[in-house]
Design goal:
The complex is a heterodimer of chains A (168) and B (696). With 168 residues, chain A is of the alpha+beta class. In chain A, 28% of the residues lie in helices and 23% in strands. Chain A contains 6 helices and 8 strands. In chain A, the strands form 4 sheets. Chain A has a two-stranded antiparallel sheet. The longest helix of chain A is centred in the C-terminal third of the chain and has 18 residues. In chain B, the strands form 7 sheets. A 7-stranded mixed sheet of chain B has the order 5-4-17-16-15-6-7. The chains are: A alpha+beta (168), B alpha/beta (696).
Amino acid sequence: MSEHYIDQDLKRCIGCHACEIHCKNEHDLGPGPQHCLIVKVGPKVRDGVPRAQFLFLPCFHCEQAWCMAACPTGAMKKREDGIVWVDRDLCVGCKACITACPWGVPQWDEENGKATKCDYCKDRIDRGLEPACVTGCTTKALRWVKPNEASKRKREQFAKEIAENFNY
Amino acid sequence: MATRFVHSICGMCTFRCPITVEVRDGRVKHIWGNPHVTGGYNLCPRGAAGRAFEYDDERPQTPLLRDGARGSGRWKKAAWDEALDFVADKLAAIKEKHGAKALVMSDRGGPHREFHRTFFQAYGSPNYFNHHATCSNSVHNAHMSMTGLARNGVAYDYKRCKYLLSFGRNFLEAVGTGEAKNIIDLIERGTTFTHIDVRWTYTGSKATNLYVVKPGSDYAIASAMLHVLIKENLVNREFIADWVNGFDDLAAFARDYTPEFAEQASGMPADAIRRVARDMAEAAPSVLLYPGYMTAWGSNDYYLRRALYAINALLGTYEAPGGMVFPKGPGDVGVKIRQLTGQAPKPEESERFDGIGTTCHHLGKGWGMAQLLPKAILEEDPYPIRGYIAQRHDPLASLPDPAAFKQALEKLDILVSVDVNWSETAWNADVILPECTYLERTDNVIVRKGLKPRLALRQQAVEPRFDSRPRWWIYKQLAKRLGIDEFLPYETIEEEIDWQLEGTGYTHKDFEETGEIKLTDEEIWYDRKDGLKFKKRSGKIELQCDELTDCGVPCWAPYEAPPEFNGDKFRLITGKKAVHTQGRTTANNPLLHEITPENTIYIHTSRAKNLGLKTGDKITLTPEEEDKPQTGTLEVTDFIHPDAVFMLHGFGDTVPVRSRSFGKGVKNMQLSTGKLRQTVGGNCPLTDTFVQIAKA
């Protein structure tokens, strides 16, 4: 079952793309495939200041992964801890996973003619470390947590924000 | 699989962040922040892309001698002995025929200058300068004029700051890892952060308040803040009595600069100016009014910087928690570190090519004025210049009007480029001496000043990939050939490090574990009543100072309104982003280039409409008085002042062998014709560049 989650604190993210570069270092990727991606949205004016958001988009490691269902060779695999990953020896480069994924996560590795995607840096996880994007993030905007920890943090943040407007 | 961690110092830009290099089987696997120093592995994208830089083949790989016209790209590979002999012979000949001062040397500043500066000092030339003419000359010189301290004579205590005000310092795009994290922490704590700029940036996006103002009007706003603080008696009377001279002169100057005047000049509402001044006073002295980073803005930038330091002085932010603090060094804990430059003789000849110390007395020799070199070469004024060593400095990329600069370089007997990169200057040089990259070499011991001073070392992480040599070796070899190597008293880098550390009880081995040596566990603070170390003769901050007026430089100059912009004329503003700063390590970097392959040109919606332009249009940008347009791609935005046209600096690469960045984007410096000029602060007046825009 899926145990992992990368929680992005949008308020801390500065859209610097360090996560993408740390990711490329871990996976020895050159230009082209992007296991994670920062997408800038905005700016839109809020309270008189134009605000932009930078959304961090890795793989979501779905419980019922479209990419796995679509893969005809069994190259798209899932570990017990829920990490969905590409077994490169089995990948024939058919790109069915790229077609199937609703969020555009699987990437094409032109150099090797294989699909490639975020595997939450499973080799690092297995050594007790965190994914490279989380470890290297310039402003500590990314956190490697259990999904419910992320929900809890978000609720607490929301509670603080609404309480600030209470008329005690 | 053998993995080891080497703690070192980044070299991708001039922030020099502490890094930890993860080396696997002799190759760089990762580059992280150094957790022993910063408490985390976080590192900005440029730092992380140091790996891609290391394994990119598009850099000089052996010593090269020019084998065709300058800039033709025809090179002859040379052995080190041959290249060094060639350079040494030329330098000896120049000294014999024209004197040592006929050789100039420049670099990018910073603490890793010991080897080449010692060599240069021993050679006997006074003509060292650095890249600060296009960076921080005016803020350095402004602070020197008031306190005797350089800009970095104070540090910023972000962690305890209660109000942050920035004039255009783009903390969150021109990123240093530690500083960006500090700013985000500060915002998360709920500290008010007011950002004043001529355009929207990621920094403005995160600020509490953002004011987009007329370019060139900052000095009016700062003067109005002084006006409010003085008029409403919001200043720190005790601090002023103890530490500030010349308050009355400043008060007289600021009297006419009302917030209403500044509103008319800048567009920033008078009420907002009052509110910022009052809020800062409320939070004082734990206030940071950031004095400036890259300040090669307008002709009168010096006065803006003086005004910003004056606000700090009136609020008493010096050596206050959350304010500007004196960075403490080894001397503060009774440790003495030897520097090579300290034992080399000072040049007998002191007259400089840029007139600092002879015709110009109020500017610092430590930075010089790079922009005056072309005139000195071409007119042999004040004397002939025949040789130039560009040490990791690229004037043809970083100074305005590269065509004019290049024309002057043509006249030199020898131009040597010592670099890890194909710089534009290297491409036009006679000799390239390829330096090992920052991952392939160990450098001198540097001092990390701060509330807790430390020593730090850049340590070699991997073997050099090509026939390059470390800086300490290159200058030692040149010095041997010229008979001046007694001032570089080492044969190995370990010997040099131990020489620097002699008497401290430390050796080069003490850096292995963490990359740094902590000199104290406790923060050191000077007494705010009687322990501050301003370096003016009075020992105080001098708002009014005879040294300036004696040179004919007024301490406070009246605000001059910038010209009106309409039709097709715009004011050129440039900046940086996290993946791409001034360094030549980023534009052609395979991974950073992928994120930002070229610069886009931004103008305001209203101006675009008048010119019939829309986002995505190809446009031409033409400099003043020169019909040499460049072509760029337009983006129209509501979030820039209508006077301004903005683009990222560092594009339009002219070096063909940099295959990714070559020819991509607009080269802003080429638009800054006529800006190789001296200004009162020593900076090139880059934002006084006006360009015409038309549909291509």
